[in-house]
Design brief:
The chain has 432 residues and is mainly alpha-helical. Among the domains are: 73 residues; 144 residues, no CATH class. Helix content is 68%, strand content 1%. The chain has a two-stranded antiparallel ribbon with strand order 1-2. It is globular and about 65 Å long.
Length: 432
């Protein structure tokens, strides 16, 4: 606790810096203003660490988390333009059009008032099919129904869902901390993490909803409430397919614990969530998107970039079309191996999911900042801090934006993975 007037003055200074940092990153600073962005983020992160390490009052930290998210409602996201695809997809649904039916450009000449050229020009991937499952699409549809062509209102509606998911994750984290014998105060490292706030409530990335469902699934699994556990994991997969990688561990663990049905039922629930939009167009578009993801997209990778450089040296060109699928196979085999090891060594669920997702990200060709944030929750529950370090350094990938486009310097990626890797290695050695 903080006692002296000087300590309290310092505390409130960090509190103000934290709010102003979140506000500037979420509303004021444009993403090509690299120096301002990095200065704002570093000062915000330092304030975050101080406030959580030396809290004046834990209830005050809860309020601070609410305020930091609420101030983001005043403007459209500035660090990400994904929201415009959300509005586009929601508008298609509002007009009775299947969002996976055709590419966005198809609809510009169909006299649909809300699908303007201005909105089309803001899409960051107009030449690709949408990738968002029906649960997400339902939220997009609600936002468009309410907004009456006001983009800020539409973003605000989506933010309400992500805001609620963050708070729900915080509540389940506190419950899980208690279950695993850790201080509930650990949950505040999640609640006030600047990347959590900026990427979910700020930039509207649905990993925040995924984290909520996964934590709910974990909590009810530990309480032997298998139906609710299945619902949590199933809805997580329905929001984003990636949590499928957790099912092998849950199945193997469930065989011994007589909870194997959780993974099976979770898969069934996830499948049911796809039914509202499931048709030939949906299957074709998702297959094409997944193929592009593994064979064409690359961003902030680790093992892949090393393999790519070897490919350049051997063949003289970027051989991602072969390297990407090969790494996905290696990733799958590693996930199975970790799942088996986790069951044999009786790892708690958070530790197993932590290492499963970490291995997936290390083999991935694309690692956006919001991809690593589930690791923060898993790390706090399993006693590993490298996810928090990663959540700090991965923000520096925003330094690649300029007024001319995007080009991320390789030294930023090297710094990110070297520091995160060093902390991981030190933690592994210490725990061993």
């Amino acid at each position: 606790m903080i006692g002296t007037k000087q300590d309290k003055a310092g505390h409130y200074t960090f509190l103000i810096v934290f709010i102003l940092g979140i506000l500037s990153l979420g509303s004021w600073v444009e993403r090509h203003q690299t120096t301002l962005i990095l200065m704002a983020y570093c000062s915000t992160f330092v304030s975050y660490v101080f406030l959580v390490l030396k809290p004046l009052d834990l209830k005050q930290l809860v309020t601070l988390g609410f305020i930091a998210r609420l101030v983001l409602f005043i403007s459209m996201p500035v660090l990400s333009d994904d929201v415009y695809r959300f509005i586009w997809d929601g508008t298609l649904l509002k007009n009775g059009i299947h969002p996976f039916e055709a590419l966005p450009g198809t609809y510009l000449d169909q006299n649909i008032d809300e699908l303007s050229q201005e909105l089309f020009n803001k899409l960051n991937s107009p030449n690709y099919f949408t990738i968002y499952p029906p649960i997400n699409q339902f939220i997009f549809w609600i936002s468009v129904i309410v907004c009456q062509e006001n983009w800020l209102v539409a973003a605000g509606i989506i933010r309400i869902f992500l805001f609620a998911a963050d708070f729900g994750s915080f509540i389940f984290l506190k419950k899980l901390c208690h279950h695993y014998g850790k201080s509930e105060a650990m949950a505040y490292w999640f609640w006030l993490n600047p990347m959590i706030i900026l990427e979910f409530t700020g930039n509207l990335h649905f990993e925040g909803v995924v984290i909520f469902f996964v934590l709910a699934g974990m909590f009810y699994y530990e309480k032997n409430k298998n139906l609710f556990a299945s619902l949590g994991f199933g809805l997580a997969i329905g929001t984003k397919l990636l949590p499928l990688i957790y099912l092998p561990f849950l199945f193997l663990k469930g065989i011994k614990a007589k909870q194997w049905s959780v993974s099976i039922l979770a898969g069934a629930i996830a499948t049911l969530t796809l039914l509202p939009l499931l048709n030939a167009s949906f299957i074709s578009a998702m297959r094409e998107s997944l193929d592009l993801y593994f064979r064409s997209f690359e961003f902030n990778a680790s093992i892949y970039f090393i393999a790519r450089e070897i490919g350049f040296w051997m063949y003289g060109y970027n051989n991602i079309a072969k390297i990407g699928p090969l790494l996905s196979i290696l990733s799958f085999l590693t996930i199975i191996a970790i799942s088996i090891a986790g069951v044999v060594k009786k790892w708690p669920i958070p530790k197993a999911l932590l290492f499963i997702l970490t291995s997936y990200l290390l083999f991935a060709t694309t690692v956006h900042p919001w991809y690593v944030l589930p690791l923060v929750a898993f790390g706090l529950l399993s006693g590993y801090w490298y996810p928090l370090v990663w959540s700090f350094f991965i923000f520096f990938t925003y330094a690649g934006y300029s007024q001319e486009g995007f080009e991320l310097p390789m030294y930023i990626i090297v710094i990110e993975y070297v520091f995160t890797g060093l902390v991981l290695i030190l933690e592994l050695r210490k725990k061993k």
